[in-house]
Amino acid sequence: MRLHQLKIDYVAEQDRVLMLIAASDAVEVRMFLTRRFIKLLWPLLVKLAEEASPRIKTQANPEARRALLGLEHEQAVSRADFSKPFEETPRTTPLGEAPLLLARIQTGHDRNGLPVLAMHPADGQGVTLTLDPVLLHSVCRLLQAAVTKSDWDMELRLPGTEAREAPERGAPRTIN
Fold this sequence. Notes:
By secondary structure, the protein is of the alpha+beta class. It has 4 helices and 6 strands, in the order βββαααβββα. The chain has a 6-stranded mixed β-sheet, with helices on both faces.
């Protein structure tokens, strides 16, 4: 199956994040991500993003690695299309109408070196996604937006994308 569309949004009534994956062959998979699951998932996504780039992997300086990750994140996200709404068309749901409650995560790489993310409920089938750079960084951006809507007191930060902190008031500044 080929990924057609992806939607990630916070559902207040469930206090969970709902991920909808639509495949090109009129198939849809629905999954709930809890706060706990996202806390486990986020560091894995950051690690996959760092490992996916040869430029980042070969950089010894941690600050340069963060800066490169931020740059690559912005480049990948700029190639994604967030303007198109999720198509609410009838699709078959082979894993059930009700969203799966995700409990297990596995990561790795395919034979071409692309990151692979497998997400499964405690029992039964789940989903395995092969993540090209655009999809990987789009998932990160969509998760960040969904978690921002929640009141989970949690911020998903991707190294290198944080806004520069303003100097403290009264702190010495250097002007050139």
